[in-house]
Specification:
heterodimer, A: alpha/beta, 9 helices, B: ABC transporter involved in vitamin B12 uptake, BtuC, 15 helices, 2 strands, globular
């Protein structure tokens, strides 16, 4: 079971944002998308989530075209964490995470339990009754992460579940970056397919099963981090000279610039 | 920390509203003791109670409930706690419609005939609905309804409506002028059982349909694409809520004129007290709005006995200082 984006092209107001992009997101795997600013990473996420209709090509979720699923069915299988949130109403963290339970009819007692567990998981239990509007950037991002986790907390009988994260670690300190990657890994182990747009190549290398490099609206390279991350590729895509070393413990490629 | 639990506030208001309404029955140009309310009273007192005051109070309850619940809905939809129902053009359109009728059918209204008064109401309703439709169409494209464009279109429509209104007042005689400006102040004094029936039907319709979209509104506060990712059919929710609001506010304005302020401030105050969850915010706002309007209308009847003030003046006079006090207190806490 997968998300399958087949031969996607996206043409918006005179610009080719994506050209003939095909990508398969497998359940139980972590797919990291990297690439320079404006390379088409976020556009691809928007196409995969059905937010933008591609100019050409098709997207299917669990072997059915994306737009054939009803909105609430789709929401039970696919959760999306945006890069920025514009929430400026004084919800408490509990209430924000509770919004993640909207697609489900599990009852308020079960929902409250899931909300508490999700906040605990992202190290934000202490925020429960605090107002979202009064939190720091990192705290907000953790609460939003808990919200999308709550959305796919339980297995779904409709099909495999997927989590799409747009730069989830951008506002986090070191310990919460590691926490996020650990959560992502354990979700994948549970069978969730994770797609993550990320800028830090070493974080991507550490956690990705499949690394996708975007450049100028096309996929420049795709495969395991070991196969993809080469000095030539980084020079070509980012125009930065680098040395690829091997992580002393995990043996994953380490990009040193 | 919030000061009240949502259910607590709703309970308190469900008790306060009937009490205030009963008290309101006793006040006015003719003072009636509480005993007369339940005991046998003279025919004259009965007429005052059941043909004048009761319909007026019920109208105040329905208008207050509709204005503040639609206010809560609009603030959620626009993700802006300063939005109010008039933003979508309904008030400005209605006021042009009403002025047009007053100027065009001036002779009929002068005599106080029922026909004339209903013409103003019909004009206001049609004007409000047309303006909302226009604003909605301007803001809707293939990719959906843009809330920002709607806000701007609402401002543009309000400007045009203001110009038309000025034009109409320029060409009206003294009597019409007075009619127009009185109507714009908002007044519940023309209450009748027919008006109550119409208004109550609309209020019930709105308050029974809003809960269905409370979750959608909550999700919309996160942003439109986030709401879509949570399985909310955003376009359908917007269309439903804008239509219901146009209907509700249109009828309010048609029957009671421009009662300002309630739709903006009440949801805001209620949100400060119990938080932005629309499952509670909408019913609590409806109750609080009804209570405020009953109080304001009672005062309107007694402050300048034997005459009375337009209700709209009192809602602003009562609500604004309270609101400012709340803001000052909040400033201290931060």
């Amino acid at each position: 079971m997968t998300i399958l984006a087949d031969n996607i092209s996206l043409h918006l107001s005179g610009f080719d944002l994506l050209r003939n992009v095909s990508i398969e997101v497998e359940a139980g795997k972590v797919t990291a998308i990297v690439g320079p600013n404006g390379a088409g990473k976020s556009s691809l996420l928007k196409v995969i989530t059905g937010e933008i209709e591609p100019t050409k090509g098709t997207v299917s979720l669990n072997q059915q075209p994306l737009n054939k699923w009803r909105p609430e069915q789709k929401a039970q299988m696919l959760a999306v964490l945006p890069q920025h949130s514009i929430l400026n109403f004084p919800f408490t963290a509990n209430e924000v995470v509770g919004l993640g339970r909207i697609p489900h009819q599990t009852g308020s007692i079960k929902d409250a339990q899931i909300v508490a567990e999700a906040l605990e998981l992202v190290d934000a239990s202490y925020l429960q009754k605090r107002f979202y509007t009064q939190m720091s950037g990192g705290e907000k991002q953790r609460v939003q992460l808990a919200r999308v986790l709550a959305q796919i907390w339980q297995l779904c009988e409709l099909g495999e579940q997927f989590l799409l994260l747009d730069e989830p670690t951008s506002a986090f300190d070191l310990s919460h970056q590691k926490l996020t990657l650990d959560i992502v890994r354990s979700l994948a182990d549970r069978g969730v397919g994770v797609v993550m747009v990320i800028h830090d190549l070493n974080l991507a290398s550490r956690c990705a099963d499949n690394l996708v490099v975007f450049n100028g609206g096309i996929i420049e390279a795709m495969g395991s981090p070991e196969a993809v991350l080469t000095e030539q590729l980084i020079d070509k895509v980012f125009e930065v000279e680098s040395i690829i070393a091997s992580h002393p413990v995990s043996k994953k490629p380490l990009v040193i610039t | 920390m919030r000061r009240f639990s949502a259910s607590g506030l709703i309970w308190v208001l469900t008790i306060v509203l009937p009490v205030v309404s009963l008290l309101s029955m006793t006040v006015g140009t003719v003072s009636i003791s509480a005993g007369d309310l339940f005991g046998a009273a003279s025919n004259q007192v009965n007429t005052i109670l059941f043909d004048i005051r009761l319909p007026r109070i019920l109208l105040a309850i329905c208008v207050g409930a509709v204005l503040s619940s639609t206010g809560a809905v609009m603030q959620g939809l626009f993700r802006n706690s300063l939005a109010d129902p008039s933003l979508i053009g309904v008030s400005s359109g209605a006021s042009v419609g009403a002025s047009l009728m007053i100027v065009a059918a001036g002779g009929l209204i002068k005599t106080g005939a029922l026909l004339g008064l209903s013409l103003v109401a019909v004009g206001a309703f049609i004007g409000g609905f047309v303006a909302t439709l226009l604003v909605y169409r301007l803001a809707t494209s293939d990719i959906g309804t843009s809330v920002t464009t709607m806000l701007l279109a609402g401002i543009a429509i309000a400007a045009i409506a203001g110009a038309l209104n000025s034009l109409l007042t320029y060409f009206s005689d003294n009597d019409m002028l007075r009619q127009i400006s009185l109507w714009q102040m908002g007044n519940l004094s023309g209450a009748s059982w027919t008006k109550v029936a119409i208004m109550a039907a609309v209020a019930l319709l709105l308050l029974s349909l809003f809960p269905r979209d409370s979750h959608g509104l909550n999700a919309l506060l996160l942003g439109e694409s986030e709401a879509r990712h949570l399985g909310v059919d955003v376009q359908a929710v917007k269309r439903r809520l804008i239509l219901l609001t146009a209907l509700g506010v249109g009828v309010c304005v048609a029957l009671a004129g421009l009662v300002g302020f309630v739709g903006l401030i009440i949801p805001h105050i209620v949100r400060l007290a119990i938080g932005p969850d629309h499952r509670w915010l909408i019913p609590a706002s409806a109750l609080a709005g009804a209570t405020l309007l009953v109080i304001a209308d009672s005062l309107a009847r007694i402050v300048v006995v034997p005459a009375e003030l337009p209700t709209g003046i009192l809602t602003a006079l009562l609500g604004a200082p309270f609101f400012v006090a709340l803001l000052l207190q909040q400033r201290k806490q931060v």
